[in-house]
Amino acid sequence: MPWRFGAAPRGAVLLFSAATLVGARPESARAATITIVDMDAAGEGFNDPTPVTPVGGNPGTTVGAQRLFVFQHAADVWGAILPSTVEIRVQAAFNPLSCTATSGVLGSAGAVSVVRDFAGAPLSGHWYPIALANKLAGADLTPGVNDINAQFNSSVGTTGCLETTSWYYGVDANAGGKIDLLSTVLHELGHGLGFSTTTSGSTGGYAGSFPHVWDHFLYDDGSGLHWDQMDDAQRAGSAVACDQLAWDGPYTMQQAPAFLGANPVLRINAPAAIAADCEAGTATFGPALTSAFMTQDIVLADDGVGTTTDACEPLVNAAAVSGKIALIDRGNCAFTQKVKNAQNAGAIAAVIVDNVAGCSPSGLAGADPTITIPAVRITLADGNTIKANLPGVNASLARDPGSLAGADGVGRPRMYTPSAFSGGSSVSHWDVTADPDLLMEPFATPLAPDRVDLTQWLFADLGWFRGLVAVGDPPGGRTHLVGNGPNPFGSSTTIHMTLARDGEAELAIFDLGGRRVASLHAGALAAGAHSFDWHGWNDAGRRVPPGIYLCRLRAEGVVETERMVKWQ
């Protein structure tokens, strides 16, 4: 991708000609202003005059107006969360992108430029995306130049491009079988705001001979090194090492248990020679796994037709499968069809084995309300090990509360590193094993509206939040309003704060007019970290409407305020 170096008065700048897929504390915690710059020509994209009916909270009456409303809504969500005194300008357009009748690129976005060694940079010799660099410097380091470049697929729903679906322009997460534009824009703006690196994952080479701040927090479990400590070959190897690359920023690790659930596992109990926990992807259909282990022998499915182990037809070994865990090969029919055939044969659970080698599996997609048994997906390697030891394999299926889904053994959230490098996806996304799904996974996932989940805490590690610059500024040992999560939130959120010493503290919620809405605490607190839940009720016991609210901490002469977005 073409780029050039140029001198800048406040540090070096690397300027991109197109989108990439990619401490001093500020004086103000003012919410960021994010402006959408319409790059479409008349009659297309944001200016498409096709009349439509308002939908899902979007009042627009043309396709173009609805698209612009969604974009500005997403910009306002990020703007309410990220503090900056410098306007963030996003040049955006709808263009035809890579697509087939059944799959395609929904959108892409990235920082227009990156900057290093500017006044206020927490790390020297590291590139920062321009929006973050401007925030940390408290000034526009590239005046007259937009900060983020974004484009989205204008062909979705047309012949040859995801033909059976279309964009959904509502902002209420009610997309049904359509593709939710809001979550797509939130995702891509996340990349432009800093959820990516300029370092090549395929070659391991730095952009312009310097690492990105992102690389400082990429930790390789195999080598015990961060990306900014490795050589090119080590980084290239790390980018395709299954389940080895993780994020070890302190704020992200601290908050991960609030966003990631217990890890789903298939625990092999016998024979002893293969006893181990197999990573498992869960299904969107059937009952959810719980922490109660379901234990039984494993039996290989046999439907007697073609690939006899794919369970695409009724099983002919129902007597053997009944009361057991059915092992099924992937391919040739829908996951729901396989599991339903196992259920009809009397199986108590189904385990589907991938048909190609790969990393820890993602989930099983589909919908069938008649399925009443749990189902999971495991890797080809694990499946082959089980098959080689049949009969006589006994296993347990459950969620293990001792580990997090999508994190390594010590709680570092994993990054997406498939065994074959995928440009634009590898390294710069959360891993697909995250459960519940996260906004910044590489594939579109159904999410609550305005949900930015664990990503906001990764941004805290990078330096986005006032007083939350991870480098040289640990969260403990001072009085501080850390923030809340999730944010935005629906029915409830948890507010986190720290006190440097024992004393009086007041934590309360206000509306934007400065009126007190709810008092969460007023009185003595011990030194250390504290968390308070707010369920969206005011002091009169009534649920407050959606909107932006202020959380304020007063303690030891410190007054700190953070914005929160309530979407329902």
Please characterize this protein's 3D structure.
By secondary structure, this protein is of the alpha+beta class. It folds into three domains: 3-220 and 445-456, no CATH class; 262-403, Glucose Oxidase, domain 1 (3-Layer(bba) Sandwich), CATH 3.50.30; 476-566, Immunoglobulin-like. The chain has nine helices and 28 strands. It has helices at 63-81, 130-137, 181-193, 232-238, 250-259, 318-321, 335-344, 380-388, 455-462; strands at 3-6, 12-16, 34-38, 88-95, 107-111, 113-116, 128-129, 148-153, 167-168, 179-180, 218-220, 225-226, 245-247, 262-270, 276-279, 281-282, 294-300, 325-329, 349-353, 375-378, 394-404, 480-485, 493-499, 503-510, 516-525, 528-534, 547-555, 558-566. It has an eight-stranded mixed beta sheet with strand order 15-14-21-17-18-19-20-16, with helices on both faces. A hairpin with a 4-residue loop joins β11 and β12 (225-226). The longest helix has 19 residues, at 63-81.
Task: Provide key terms for this protein.
28 strands; Immunoglobulin-like; 568 residues; Glucose Oxidase, domain 1; 4-stranded antiparallel beta sheet; 8-stranded mixed beta sheet; alpha+beta
Per-chain topology:
Layout: E1 3-6, E2 12-16, E3 34-38, H1 63-81, E4 88-95, E5 107-111, E6 113-116, E7 128-129, H2 130-137, E8 148-153, E9 167-168, E10 179-180, H3 181-193, E11 218-220, E12 225-226, H4 232-238, E13 245-247, H5 250-259, E14 262-270, E15 276-279, E16 281-282, E17 294-300, H6 318-321, E18 325-329, H7 335-344, E19 349-353, E20 375-378, H8 380-388, E21 394-404, H9 455-462, E22 480-485, E23 493-499, E24 503-510, E25 516-525, E26 528-534, E27 547-555, E28 558-566
Parallel strand pairs: 3-4, 4-8, 9-10, 17-18, 18-19, 19-20
Antiparallel strand pairs: 1-2, 2-6, 5-8, 6-7, 11-12, 11-13, 14-15, 14-21, 16-20, 17-21, 22-23, 23-26, 24-25, 24-27, 27-28
